Fold these 3 entries.
Entry 1:
Amino acid sequence: MGITSATPHKPSGQAPPPAARPDRPQGTGRQRTATAGTDVQRERILQAAAQLFAAQGYANTTMAQIVRALDATKPFVYYYFRDKQEIFETLSWRPAVDCFTALDFAANDPRPAVDKVKDGIERLIRATISHYPCAFFAYKEPQVYRPEYLEAQKKLAHHFYDQLFPLLEQARSDGDLDFDETKITAFAALSLPGFLFSWYKPDGRFTPEEMTAELSKLAWRVIGLRERT
């Protein structure tokens, strides 16, 4: 997802409506109309491919291997996906959306800024862990993606940071956070989930929810969370 390396631009102070969020650039699989049945088949392909990509990397995974893992035929897979790059991008896009929309709260959400910041960071961390291993693909193999995909991902990242920066500054103004540089603080806090790809194992001694809680508390320390009295 490239969370910590996203290029920020001037925050607008407002989140774009859901319709303004970019969709993943579409591929050219032969499927034209999705149905419940075809969705099931797409998921079969995606799950088989995810395991192969995670185990042996993008370059060492072939469409033939995906076909064999499914015990299917090449025309079956090509009906749903143009090539393995489209499969890889589809697997990567879901966690990108879940992470970068973690601050999409209702417009009338009455909570103070600090609660939204804490909630958003925790949701982002939870999404990163819950989408293992696909959430780590973009960190491990960023060279794979098409320019169109990278542009869509960048728009999602801007959408996230346009909300995070003003919330951090408002929480600091409210006396709930203590930090100096907004962008540095934000990137430092989000580097915690950003580097999960280098060490996280789902079969470790912490459950996903316990790991989410531990990393969230560490991130809150980075942003200078103050205890309320």
Entry 2:
Amino acid sequence: MDKIKILVVDDESRMRKLVKDFLGREGYQVIEAGDGMEAMEKFYDEKNIALIILDVMMPKMDGWQVCREVRQESKVPIIMLTARSEERDELQGFDLGVDEYISKPFSPKILVARVNAILRRANVLGGGDEIDAGGILIDKAAHQVKIDGKEIELSFKEFELLAYFVENQGIALSREKILNNVWDYDYFGDARTIDTHVKKLRSKLGEKGNYIKTIWGMGYKFEVDA
């Protein structure tokens, strides 16, 4: 069986080696790129890249531009690495379709855990079952969502979030529970990660975005309107 390919993009060779060593121990095949332009070349040349780990600050083409170009071609999960920790940077990453956001310095073990979680969920979503909730049809095998028969475009994380909501219809879900089940790690920080994704998901669902109810001071509940 071919190894799962991960593209690691960082202008610091020491950082690339560190990430490569840890991912290699997990059995992944790591493809390296030292700047944004090389990253895009590798992205187009290599087949079946399962995930991209992408630094923000790089020469020739920064991580934001790489993310924009990749998203024009693919929904491949992206983990963004950055030395910055400002809120606007994190929100910009989510707006561009970043699935995870990790600030440097970070624990390589935590990074590997998040990589494993994303890829495990991607494999789980290949079960072939469909869920229908109030005109929203989720096809897990095809990683596809249709509203009243019309397909809508969702990012990897938006798809996971919607599937989790629909599978837990009528249940009040705290932000902590959503993070631990959809992001699959203990999140220390405020709730903007969840709230940003819910806002975008509601917008893409149109009128059916109203199915996602806000429970003030707690979290959210998915409930199909009668």
Entry 3:
Amino acid sequence: MGFYQRRIVPCLTHLAMSQKQLLPFRRHVVGAAEGRVLEIGVGSGMNFPLYGRSAASVIGLEPSPELLRMARARARSAPLPVTLLDASAEAIPLEAGSFDTVVTTWTLCTIPDALRALSEMRRVLKPGGALLFVEHGRAPEAGVARWQDRLDPLWSRLAGGCHLNRKMDDLLTAAGFSIEALANPRLPGPRTHTYLYEGRARPA
């Protein structure tokens, strides 16, 4: 891993994820978590203050050492117990059926094998457990989607593996989830980057 990926990308990720326009989506998704929670890709830990009283504890995964360092500082002041693991969602080092809720916020775009990661999330959820998510991804307009496909190879290299063109609802279904709720709001900004998938899914 080069200097850019190791040092610059985590800082850029932190800045991008600190945008105020993302906060209402974070609050809605994270605030709905219940029981024992697994958060995928905690980044610098911006979600920790947003967990409500229904969440008992959080185990957070983060493969970036630099982001994990930032997250540890935030975990100390979180309103609930937080345990952080240096681990990838593609191979979650935790027991099957051990979580009530899995949370992912703007994370699936960067995981190299998102389908494998989602299958792992399904594995660790209890029967009836919920995956709560907000992600950006493939837009429904054909012209916008074509531009996402054109831009994706360069964007992915610049943005630490982030992909613009993943159709998140199809990935969820392919991984064995049943989508209970799904909204597709747009953020202000380039249409190639701002189409969201926000919702809740359960193991089918």
